[in-house]
Design brief:
Blueprint lengths: L9 H41 L5 H9 L10
């Protein structure tokens, strides 16, 4: 009839409950990290590449001259 419970698997006999928990949680954790990375990449691409977001501190220093002796030539 085959394996009917994870208690009958070799992973359980070798590593116990910790091994079974790691085996089941690894794909879930990997998927979570992949989703977070994909979201971060999409957000960075949208704001920095498509919208052309700039460094706002640098832009403000060019406008108000608050940088002292520095001169930004554009």
């Amino acid at each position: 009839h085959g394996i009917t419970s994870f208690y009958q698997t070799q992973t359980y006999h070798l590593y116990g409950m910790v091994g079974v928990g790691a085996a089941f949680s690894l794909p879930i954790f990997t998927g979570y990290l992949w989703c977070k990375t994909a979201k971060f990449t999409a957000k960075k691409f949208y704001y920095h590449v498509l919208l052309g977001e700039r460094n706002w501190i640098y832009e403000q220093m060019k406008l108000d001259g608050g940088a002292g002796e520095y001169y930004f030539k554009d």
